[in-house]
UniProtKB/TrEMBL annotation:
Pfam families: SoxG. The lineage of its organism: Bacteria, Pseudomonadati, Pseudomonadota, Alphaproteobacteria, Rhodobacterales. InterPro entries: SoxG (IPR007375), TrmE/GcvT-like (IPR027266). This is Sarcosine oxidase subunit gamma.
Length: 185
């Protein structure tokens, strides 16, 4: 078996915001009844976080949980722990109508760091990034690709997309963060 590698192996760009691939990140799709006690317990056991409300992301001691749709969550964990989390959650939800899938190797994750991180993302998405605050998650698109993003803090945006379009996403983010391209209000 080959060793896991991230899509762009840690690619980075320093512009008026820093754009960097986050490396290997554990990502698990959990689909089911989000109001179920069993789902809530499985999510808490996996991440230490509570199920977030619509458009939110919550932090736990072992990971994060993002609301993706009325019946879908994204669990974010250490990459190496993702298979164990899937196994444990699948066991815990055996009597529930639920699906737990490790999508880690099908995704790419980027961080945009700097005071203008919202601006860099805003150049690429129809979403109103001025309304984004830490703890909010937005499923949208950047240019022509589906993506989701959230703020870790006021100066760090995290963007998730399919691994197959990682280079395209990175190039878009680099172009949006080029020095001289700042938007002045």
């Amino acid at each position: 078996m080959s060793d896991a590698v991230s899509a762009l192996q840690g690619a980075s760009f320093d512009g008026y915001c820093k754009v960097e691939e986050a490396g290997l990140v554990g990502m698990i799709t959990l689909r089911g009844d989000l109001s179920s006690t069993g789902v809530a317990k499985a999510v808490k056991a996996a991440t230490g976080a509570a199920i977030p409300g619509q458009g939110k992301i919550t932090d736990g001691v072992k990971g994060r949980v993002g609301w993706m749709s009325p019946d879908e969550l994204l669990l974010i964990t250490d990459h190496i722990e993702a298979p164990k989390v899937v196994e444990a959650a699948t066991r815990a939800l055996a009597k529930e109508h639920a699906l737990v899938v490790n999508v880690s190797d099908a995704r790419a994750v980027f961080r945009v760091k700097g005071t203008a991180c919202r601006e860099v993302i805003a150049k690429l998405t129809p979403a109103d990034t001025s309304l984004m605050q830490p703890g909010m998650l937005r499923r949208t698109r950047i240019a022509q690709i589906p993506a989701a993003f959230y703020l870790e803090d006021d100066e760090t945006a995290v963007l998730v997309c399919f691994r197959s379009v990682a280079q395209y996403a990175f190039d878009l983010l680099k172009d949006a963060a080029k020095p001289g391209g700042e938007v002045f209000s």
